Amino acid sequence: MTRIAFDQMMDTVKKAFVLAGLPEAKADVCAQVHTESSRDGIYSHGLNRVERFIDYISKGWVDVNAEPTLVNNFGSFEIYNGNLGPGILNARFAMNRATEIAENNGLGMVSLNNTTHWMRGGSYGWQAADKGYIAICWTNTESCMPAWGAKTIGIGNNPFVMAVPRKNGHLVLDMAMSQYSYGKLQVTRLKNEKLPFPGGFDKDGNLTDIPGPIEETMRILPTGYWKGSGFAILLDVISTLLSNGLATCSIDKAGKGSCGSCNQVFIAIDPLKINSQEFIDNVLESTVQQLKSSVPATENGKIYYPGEQSLLTRKTNLELGISVDDGVWERVKQLAGH
Amino acid sequence: MTRIAFDQMMDTVKKAFVLAGLPEAKADVCAQVHTESSRDGIYSHGLNRVERFIDYISKGWVDVNAEPTLVNNFGSFEIYNGNLGPGILNARFAMNRATEIAENNGLGMVSLNNTTHWMRGGSYGWQAADKGYIAICWTNTESCMPAWGAKTIGIGNNPFVMAVPRKNGHLVLDMAMSQYSYGKLQVTRLKNEKLPFPGGFDKDGNLTDIPGPIEETMRILPTGYWKGSGFAILLDVISTLLSNGLATCSIDKAGKGSCGSCNQVFIAIDPLKINSQEFIDNVLESTVQQLKSSVPATENGKIYYPGEQSLLTRKTNLELGISVDDGVWERVKQLAGH
Q1: Burial B78-115 (b: 16+ CB within 10 A, else e)
Q2: Taking Cα atoms as reference points, which of A165, A164, A120 lies closest to residue A139?
C-alpha cells in the first residue's frame, strides 16, 4: 500500500479533470472533494471514482460547463435545476445556498433536480457543519436494490446525511439504504473475506455473508430489512416531489445510473438562532460523554460518535499520506498526463 | 380474540380519559388517535397504551390542561413549548401548525420541546398526508438501546416518520431506530416464537432471534447495526438543538421515560406548490407500479408500498371490528367505569 500526500493527490486529480475538459476553477473544487473523501477513508468515492467521473464526462453524461439555475422560490425554500452539471459542484452550491437562506431565516431548504452523481454524500454534511450549520440532505439514485419482498431490483440505495457542528469534531451520519455498498462487497470478495453480518441473499434466497453470491443476484439487503426499503422509497418520492425531478423509476429508463438526472434535497439550520453556544456545547458534550461512558460490548472495545472514525482516519492520512490502491493511483496519474 | 367496533372502542377510551381528568374535547381527540392506532394494526400504541397513559396522568407526569405556547418564530420555522401536556395533543397541534405555515410558504417547520410521549409516530404522518401535505417528523426518547459497540443502554429508539399524500393510499414510513420494539419482543416471547431475524444480543454477546434473552440484557439491535445507532444519535441531537429541549441523556435523569420532557420536529411541505397534480399522481403511481412489478422473493409473495399494510388492516378492522386482547379491553372498560 502506497501513501500519497494530500496536495500531491489533489494536484494530480485536478490535472486529470482539466484534461477531461473541466474549467480550472471547477476542476479545483472537484479535485478537492474527491481528495477529501479519500483523506477521510471513503476511498470508494474519492480517488477510486476519478476514472469513472471522467468516463461520464467523455460519454457526455455530465456537462462540465453547466451551472445550476433557479427554478422556483418560496422564501426559505428554493428549487434549482442542476442542468446535468458536475454533481459535486451542484450539491456544494445547493448546500451553501441552504446555509445562506438559514443565515437570515434560521432555516433554509434547497432542492435540486436534473443533477448528476454527488459522489460522497457526507461531503455536504461536513461542508455545512464546517460553516456552523446543522444539515440534512439526501439524494435519489437509479435502482440497485430489491424492495423488501422482491428479488429483482426496483429501488435506489438513496444515501441520507445528517450533520451537527461541534467544536471537538462534528457529528456526521452518512448512510446508504443498503446495508453494504457494492464497493464493500467487491473489496471483501477480493480479500476472500466474509462480511461482518449478512449482506444479502444468494440465488437460493438465503441470507449470506459471502459477497460473491450477493453480487451475482444483486439482492443486496436493505439497511434493517423492510425499514431501509421503506425509507429508500420515501426518500426517492419526497426528493422528487420537492424538486419536480425524476423518480428512481424514471432515472432507470435513461440507463445512465445516477447521472440520468437524479435529484437531491438540502436542509440547513442555524443552531445559534435557537440556542446559546453554551447550551449547544453542553448538549453535544453530554451526549458524547453518555456514549463514551457506556460499557463496551467487547474487551478494550471503543464506542465512537458518528463521524469520529472519519476524523481519526483523516488525522492519520494527513500525517502519513492518504492510502491508495496502486493500480488506481497509476491510472489517475495517466489520466493526468504523467 | 374479540373484535370491537371503532365507535365503541373510541367511546370507551374517551370515558376512561375523562375519568382520568382530561377535559372532554381533549379526551375526544386522544381517544380518537389511540383508537385509530389500534384500527391500523398498531395495537402496541393504541388500546394497549391507554392504561399506561392514565398512569402517567395519575403520577402527575402529564398535565391534562396544558397547551403548547410559542417560544420563538423564524418565519417558516416556529418553536413551541409543550408544557408537558398530553403528547398526542401537542404533536397534533405542531403538525397542524407546520401545514398551516406550509400553506403560505410551501414549507413549514415546527419544533416542540418539553412534551410527553406522542404514542404512535405514524399518526402525525397520516394527519399531514390526509390534509395533502408531505411530512417528516421525529421524536427523541429516553435511553432504551445500547449505542453500537456498547452493551449498556445509552441512546433512544427515536421513531422517525415520513409521509406522502396519495389518492389511492398514502405512502407512510414509521420506523423506530431499534430493529424490534420491546413490545414485539414481549408478544413474540409470549407466543413461544422466534423473531423473523436476530433482534439483539444475549448475555454472552451473541446475536439471537429468541426474544427472552434480549429482554434480559436490553441489548436490542439498532436498525441496520451501526447505522440505526448513528441515526438515533443524530435525530436526538438535532431535535434537541432545533427545539432548545432536553437531549436523551437529560431525559434519562428525570426517570419518567419519554414523559420526562422529550422533544420533536415536524416538517410539512405542500407538493402542489411545486408540482401539478398530474405530475404528482404520475410519480406516485409509476413508483408504486415499479414496486408491484418486481418479482416476489417467495412464491405468491407480495410487495407492499410503505403504509399499504396499515391500510389493509384498517379496512379489515373497520369491517369486522378492531382486534383486542381480552385482558387489555377489560381493564380499559374498568377504567371507563363499566
Answers
A1: bbbbbbbbbbbbbbbbbbbbbbbbbeebbbbbbbbbbb
A2: A120
Closest CA to B258 of B267, B270, B248, B266: B248
Query: Which of B224, B230, B295 shows the shortest C-beta gap to A228?
Result: B224
Q: Which residue of A has its CA nearest to B273?
A: A74
Establish whether A117 is a catalytic residue: no
Q: For residues A103 and A78, what is the distance between their CA atoms, to the nearest angstrom? A: 14
ipTM score of complex: 0.98
pTM of the model: 0.98
Which among B155, B283, B293 has CB closest to A237?
B283
Map residue B38 onto helix, strand or coil. helix
Chain A, 126 to 145: residues with Cβ < 8 Å from chain B are: 134, 136, 143
Answer yes or no: are the C-beta atoms of B12 and B336 closer than 8 Å: yes
Nearest-by-Cβ selection for A164 from B136, B151, B241: B241
- Round to whole Å and give the CA distance between A55 and A62: 9
Cα–Cα dist A67/B57, whole Å: 57
Instruction: Please tell us whether the domain made up of B2-59+313-335 is placed in CATH 1.10.1530.10.
Output: yes
pLDDT the model gives residue B58: 96
Contact A162 B238 (CB under 8 A): yes
Contact predicate B163/B229, CB 8 Å: no
CATH number for B69-178+224-273 (one of 3.40.50.300, 2.60.120.260, 3.30.460.80, 3.30.1370.60): it is 3.30.1370.60
Q: What is the pLDDT of residues B271-287, one digit of tens each?
A: 999 999 999 999 999 99
* Spatial separation of the C-alpha atoms in residues A157 and A146, rounded to whole Å: 10
For residue A135, give the 3-state DSSP assignment.
strand
Task: Tell whether A305 is within 8 A of chain B (Cβ).
Answer: yes
Nearest chain B residue (CA) to A108: B76
